[in-house]
Amino acid sequence: MIRRGDGEGVRPMAGSGAVEARSAPVAEPAGVARLFLRQSGAAGSPLVLLHGLASSSRYWLPAAPALGRRHRLYIPDLLGFGRSPKPFAAGYTPAEHVSALEASLRVAAVAGPLALLGHSAGSLIALQYASARPEGVRGLVLMALPVIGCLPWGHRADGSAGRLHRFVAHTDRGARVATLAIRLAGPLGRRLAPRVQRDVPPDAARDALAVTAASYWRTLENVVYGMEAAALLDRIGAPTLLIHGEHDRTAPLEPVAALAATRPHLRLCVVPGAGHNPLISHERLVVEAIERFLDETA
What we know:
By secondary structure, this protein is of the alpha/beta class. The chain is 38% helix and 17% strand. It contains 12 helices and 10 strands. It has helices spanning 64-67, 94-107, 121-132, 163-170, 172-184, 186-196, 202-206, 213-224, 229-235, 253-261, 278-281, 283-297; strands at residues 2-3, 10-12, 18-21, 37-41, 45-50, 71-76, 114-119, 137-143, 240-245, 266-271. β5, α1 (64-67) and β6 (71-76) form a beta-alpha-beta unit. α2 packs across α3, α3 runs parallel beside α9 (229-235) and α4 packs across α5.
């Protein structure tokens, strides 16, 4: 129901021809990482798909044929995830994620105002992009938007952090040790990941390990816990559709519904019976809602 309120080559995708994953031979600005970027779909208006934490661009591949019927899709691995660069010194702040995305879209020669579709943490990065580049965005679709009014992960009620969290997330040595542990667990983890994350595509679940401690935890703290979604939504003039699973336990529906109820420029689509991944569990319903919204903003 809808309420107002860095690689090259061609990668096959089941049932849809090919998805190009390439970086154009154009120099990006100094100091800005170029993301691994897949391209697919029709020669239509550009639609950028941004995945969430513990995932990659492969999260979108099952739905890409439907989403790409009338849109040219640009599907990056976000900074620090999948096959994109993972600079250890990066803070993985919203601004850094947006700068890397903008540079990569410029290299790919994305023309005209674009629409952004983000899932979970990716929806927050989409919000930040629209806030920083309002003239280049014609519409936003924010799926499973996290609106979290609590302390960053691993912090106590008084704001302090436990020893393990301080070591892993806030020291270079700790982040390097945790990254090494992730790599050593890789073969076993890749076999187990699809069993742990049963509600996402298996390849995307395996890519949960294609991170470093720095890229994961800094993005979690600076993006998921560090961004004020309400304040950004108030600053954005682009039409915005919020898609949320009725039973989302990772990013609860209630605060999102409260935002939509007090902001007439927002639309809320609640997917009955869905959890944190409504596009995966209810693909047809969600794609239809996205297409109707994008038609109206064209």
